[in-house]
Design brief:
Number of helices: 10
CATH superfamily: Ureohydrolase domain
Number of strands: 8
Radius of gyration: 17 Å
CATH topology: Arginase, Chain A
Order of helices and strands: HEHHEHEHEHEEHHEHEH
Largest sheet: 8 strands, parallel
Shape: globular
Structural class: alpha/beta
Length: about 300
């Protein structure tokens, strides 16, 4: 038993699967009903067969009448914020129960704002966000340009603004792993490692070293955008990257991270089911989860 396990006090882990039918934070269609593809290929049955306690809680109820527009500074505003509030309200009761881990599937990267909000409300300690993503989503809103909320997620989490009431995170509470595109994000003081840096030290060792720097009882949110994987490995990513991690590297990284007893919330984003008609990519994602989630 590790030091973190002895401090955990959670006992068995039970995963609560939530679909997030959200594309309000994205530029283009493609992620509005991703969770159905996961269910079509039997995510609950496959994870249960691998020994996990998992309950399908259905999709988070997000209004179908959210605005769609291209007006600066944030596309579809206030649609993304409405969706974040729905995400936060849907998962908060489970975060208040020790050992119960919401597992969010589908949606765009902007939902990290809603899930972070929920974890902060459920905890009396500072939280940490492990942002495993092919992009640094730290684009600042501009009055002369309409941009997606997905590209602004980390900026919104770490800056006081009129778009989100917070409370905000300190940059030291966010670590970005696997990015290959900065999206011209402003310098925010975040800890970040590129795929080359991850490979240089080894994915598992990078994860171990990072986890060791975090406080013993910190609640951790794991954001996993599948575009951290290379396009060759994951062509159904919403914004695929040529330079990304391999599935083997991602498995090594996630196996170390998700086995940590401080994990309280997991989200898997940016799968575009419209690019995966044969459901090959989503099956790979489920296989990755089955190999890396912590069992009870």
């Amino acid at each position: 038993m590790s030091e973190n396990d002895s401090l955990d006090g959670q006992g068995e882990r039970k995963y609560h699967l939530f679909g997030v039918p959200l594309r309000s934070g994205s530029h283009y269609p493609g992620s509005e009903n991703d969770a159905q593809a996961y269910r079509d290929v039997g995510i609950v049955q496959r994870l249960a067969a691998s020994g996990y306690q998992i309950i399908d809680e259905g999709d988070i109820a997000i209004p179908s009448y959210l605005p769609h527009h291209h007006i600066p500074p944030i596309k579809n505003w206030p649609g993304p914020r409405i969706a974040w509030e729905c995400v936060s309200a849907g998962i908060l009761p489970h975060l208040q129960r020790p050992g119960h881990i919401p597992l969010l599937i589908g949606g765009d990267c902007s939902m990290v704002v809603g899930s972070t909000q929920a974890l902060m409300h459920a905890s009396d300690k500072d939280i940490h966000v492990l942002y495993i993503d092919g992009d640094i989503d730290g684009v600042a809103p501009r009055p002369d340009a309409c941009q997606s909320a997905a590209a602004m997620g980390l900026w919104l989490l770490t800056h006081v603004s009129s778009f989100w009431t917070g409370p905000i995170l300190k940059p030291s509470q966010v670590s970005v792993l696997g990015w290959s595109n900065s999206l011209q994000s402003e310098e925010m003081g975040l800890s970040s490692l590129s795929p080359e840096q991850v490979r240089r030290s080894g994915a598992g060792e990078v994860a171990r070293q990072l986890l060791q720097t975090l406080p013993p009882s910190v609640p951790i949110l794991v954001h996993f955008d599948i575009d951290v994987l290379s396009k060759q490995e994951m062509p159904a990513a919403y914004f695929p990257h040529n330079d990304g991690l391999s599935l083997t590297e991602a498995q090594e990284l996630l196996s170390t991270i998700l086995s940590d007893s401080r994990i309280r919330l997991i989200e898997v984003t940016e799968y575009a089911s419209l690019r995966d008609l044969e459901r090959t990519s989503v099956s790979r994602i489920i296989d990755l989860l089955a190999a890396t989630l912590k069992r009870a």
